[in-house]
Q: What sequence folds into this?
């Protein structure tokens, strides 16, 4: 295939230049098996108005020597030595995201999907643009400026939520091709619109605005002082005719916590009011440029005249259905936590990808491959774009004003949190503030609902039903040593999170809360109600049940105090009745890099939570689960019936030796399905307690 691509096969170029093929190239000893799925009608797929066939090419290239990590280990059957444990038996916790290097493992065999679009389709028929070989070619930027002008003149949604009179506290003013300066907008108002820059910091040395150099940078900056990605972004801004650009490292005083908090709280307005956001999608750090290899043959469409039965014998364009995912959704930039709110809050985004430029606004999408607009049938394959469209569909009109209820926005919030938690942070303490702009954006749509450590008050306690899992591509899940959120908040962990209460069957009217929130408190570190935290707690009323975990199932004590599976459940080998439909599941929140469960907790024995809930000075201790000397309890939160089967969701709380008797910390998640298992967690004494 590489040889065919080198000889000019454009289909092979699309495949060999993709991220998925990169995984194949790096494998030394693999036996590839190729599959071509049968042609199917799009009518049965994404676009009911289309009869364009599509097919998927899959290359299964699993190395024969690859080992599958077992994620169902008995907590009593752990290895004698764990690579993440120090000589004192404590699990080592990373101090920053720079200490983490996730394995570059694809979650599934590489696959490429293509569709046939009739050459008469408006998105194809009138294409006059021929992609140039150089990103410096004026034709490319003339096309991008056409997109901007079309949006400005014809897209009402892209302008209605912007505040044209808003300016950030500071901007970088572009004096000429070689000189810039930091402009304090409070002292001198800019004379035109500005653009925002979205980028990855990485490990490269970057010029930063500091207290000591503030006066100098406000006077003059030589462009050669800036890293490559900054230069590229500034050049793009100049090609559009913009004189002002917002770059975080130069517009926020990096060694002033007060300035950082104040500016971070304005991110919603910075990106929402920018005339354009320039996204350095392909640069994994500031020392890199996004445009590194550009092959016009890989951008242009392939025209074919298929003779397959069942489709009209006309000319088609063979279009990749994975191009957006490959160039933007899976790009280095989109793995960065901060970019989630930068992307979703921007009304217009120009993405600089490995091979071409992409345009996204609130009404349409363009790329050099699709200069007249990405066809609707392809836009339906872009899940991130669909979420963005939903978020911007009606703008900020308050509950009921958009025609959607609060539950609609709550669902969008959970979707965005799950996307956010799949991304990476360099500075762990940024977890709350990097989502603060989106939280502020949501607030008008939720009426008087209060934001509580990443949750919405009306959604407690059911939104506490989130779960983590050590995926092969990112096995380590942990709570950082530095406090940033209560244990019951998703923001307390670093790793992927899934909300388990947000399924269609758990959102019905028959959902019953079996736990009551009596009081909540969050101690904010700054002025923003959605910003970073110093502490907090929930006071709950509910039933606590002592448990242990074995092979990801719950065990409970019998009358003699011995722990075993719930009698009659699917896990009980001695069950008399058919209990196949009755089961439990349990998982701890934290795992080591080699996939072993961990329990961590803060030492709060000297803290009076009611008097002072500040917890950011306490020490976190993490141990392998089998060496932890505390006790585990299940706290049921919600129950409902679906398909005539009772279902239960809740969280696992840990009580550490030496802590007050009514003070717990969240350590995991559990569920029950079936009447036998759910009935075990009914009845019992109702207690009042704190979860910190």
A:
């Amino acid at each position: 295939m590489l040889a065919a691509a080198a000889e000019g096969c454009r289909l092979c170029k699309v495949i060999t230049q993709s991220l998925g093929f990169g995984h194949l190239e790096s494998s030394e000893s693999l036996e590839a098996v190729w599959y071509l799925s049968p042609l199917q009608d799009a009518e049965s797929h994404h676009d009911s108005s289309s009869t364009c066939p599509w097919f998927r090419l899959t290359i299964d290239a699993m190395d024969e020597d690859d080992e599958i990590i077992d994620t169902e280990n008995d907590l009593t059957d752990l290895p004698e030595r764990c690579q993440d444990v120090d000589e004192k038996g404590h699990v080592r916790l990373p101090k920053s995201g720079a200490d983490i290097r996730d394995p570059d493992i694809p979650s599934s065999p590489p696959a490429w999907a293509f569709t046939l679009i009739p050459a008469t389709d408006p998105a194809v028929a009138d294409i006059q643009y021929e992609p140039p070989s150089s990103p410096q070619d004026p034709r490319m930027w003339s096309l991008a400026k056409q997109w901007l002008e079309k949006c400005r003149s014809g897209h009402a949604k892209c302008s209605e939520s912007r505040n044209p009179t808003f300016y950030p506290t500071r901007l970088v003013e572009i004096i000429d091709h070689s000189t810039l300066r930091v402009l304090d907008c409070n002292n001198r108002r800019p004379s035109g619109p500005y653009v925002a820059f979205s980028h990855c910091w990485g490990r490269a040395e970057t010029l930063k605005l500091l207290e000591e150099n503030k006066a100098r940078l406000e006077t003059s900056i030589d462009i050669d002082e800036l890293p490559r990605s900054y230069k590229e972004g500034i050049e793009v801004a100049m090609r559009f005719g913009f004189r002002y650009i917002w770059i975080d490292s130069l517009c926020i005083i990096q060694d002033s916590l007060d300035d950082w908090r104040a500016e971070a709280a304005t991110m919603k307005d910075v990106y929402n009011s920018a005339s354009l956001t320039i996204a350095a999608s392909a640069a994994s750090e500031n020392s890199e440029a996004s445009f590194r290899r550009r092959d016009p043959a890989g951008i242009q469409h392939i025209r074919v005249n298929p003779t397959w039965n069942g489709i009209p014998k006309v000319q088609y364009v063979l279009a990749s259905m994975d191009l957006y995912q490959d160039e933007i959704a899976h790009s280095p930039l989109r793995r960065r936590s901060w970019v989630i709110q930068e992307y979703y809050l921007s009304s217009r985004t120009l993405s600089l990808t490995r091979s071409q430029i992409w345009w996204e606004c609130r009404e349409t999408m363009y790329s050099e491959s699709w200069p007249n607009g990405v066809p609707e049938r392809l836009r339906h394959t872009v899940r991130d774009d669909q979420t963005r469209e939903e978020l911007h569909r009606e703008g900020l009109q308050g509950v009921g004003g958009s025609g959607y209820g609060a539950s609609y926005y709550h669902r969008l919030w959970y979707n965005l949190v799950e996307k956010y938690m799949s991304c990476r942070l360099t500075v762990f303490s940024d977890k709350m503030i990097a989502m603060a702009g989106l939280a502020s954006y949501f607030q008008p749509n939720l009426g008087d609902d209060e934001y509580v450590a990443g949750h919405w008050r009306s959604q407690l306690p059911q939104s506490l039903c989130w779960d983590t899992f050590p995926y092969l591509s990112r096995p380590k899940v942990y709570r950082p040593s530095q406090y940033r959120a209560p244990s019951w908040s998703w923001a307390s962990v670093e790793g992927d999170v899934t909300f388990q209460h947000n399924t269609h069957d758990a959102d019905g009217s028959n959902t019953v809360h079996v736990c009551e929130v009596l009081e909540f408190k969050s101690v904010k570190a700054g002025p923003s109600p959605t910003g970073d935290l110093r502490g907090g707690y929930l006071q709950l009323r509910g039933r606590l049940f002592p448990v242990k975990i074995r092979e990801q199932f719950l065990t409970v004590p019998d009358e003699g105090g011995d722990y075993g599976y719930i009698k009659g459940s699917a896990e009980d080998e001695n069950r008399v009745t058919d209990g196949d439909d009755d089961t439990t599941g349990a998982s701890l929140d934290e795992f080591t890099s080699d996939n072993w469960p961990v329990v961590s907790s803060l030492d709060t024995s000297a803290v009076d939570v009611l008097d002072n809930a500040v917890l950011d000075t306490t020490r976190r201790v993490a141990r392998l689960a089998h060496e932890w000397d505390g006790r585990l309890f299940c706290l049921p939160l919600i129950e409902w019936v679906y398909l005539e089967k009772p279902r239960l969701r809740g969280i696992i709380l840990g009580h550490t030796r030496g802590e007050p008797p009514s003070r717990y910390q969240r350590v995991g998640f559990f569920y029950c399905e079936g009447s036998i298992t759910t009935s075990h967690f009914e009845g019992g004494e109702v207690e009042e307690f704190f979860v910190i």
Residues 406-691 form one domain.
